[in-house]
Design a protein that fits this description.
alpha+beta; two-stranded antiparallel ribbon; 17% strand
Length: 144
């Protein structure tokens, strides 16, 4: 089927490219820490960086600089929206403790119960999510 975006010059969508609360990506969690410390770490306002139309916060200047030098490496897949929901064609917020790095990419889910469903078929859910992303940014509803 034809690419529905072909020939369109506008990149405006109903929802931001990255899950944001109060202008801050992913509730302020430090996305680099998932990779370097293998855990959820909240960022601090003194270590922030603007990228992708939003503000990202980090726990340290070192993490901020790592992100600034290669944001695509650290930014979560599907803009930090729920990976399971994305695979189903829905746009859903996430909890910062429901995360997993797969093949060097960060995926977040709504909560740990939903993450368990997603982990039942990670390759299949990623394939479906990749097909649905980023078109679901035009979904009328962001589910919470």
């Amino acid at each position: 089927k034809a690419n529905p975006c072909a020939g369109k010059s506008s990149t405006t969508t109903l929802h931001p490219q990255f899950y944001t609360e109060k202008g801050v990506a992913l509730d302020g969690q430090d996305v680099v820490a998932y990779f370097t410390q293998s855990k959820l770490v909240m960022g601090a306002s003194q270590f922030k960086h603007n990228w992708g139309g939003t503000t990202w916060m980090f726990a340290s200047a070192a993490n901020r600089d790592m992100f600034a030098n290669n944001p695509e490496k650290y930014a979560p897949q599907y803009g930090g929206y729920c990976a399971q929901a994305t695979s189903e064609g829905n746009l859903v917020v996430t909890q910062p403790d429901a995360w997993k790095i797969v093949n060097g990419k960060l995926y977040l889910n709504y909560d740990k119960t939903v993450q368990a469903q997603w982990m039942g078929d990670i390759p299949g859910h990623i394939a479906s999510g990749n097909k649905n992303w980023p078109a679901i940014l035009n979904n009328k509803e962001l589910l919470r």
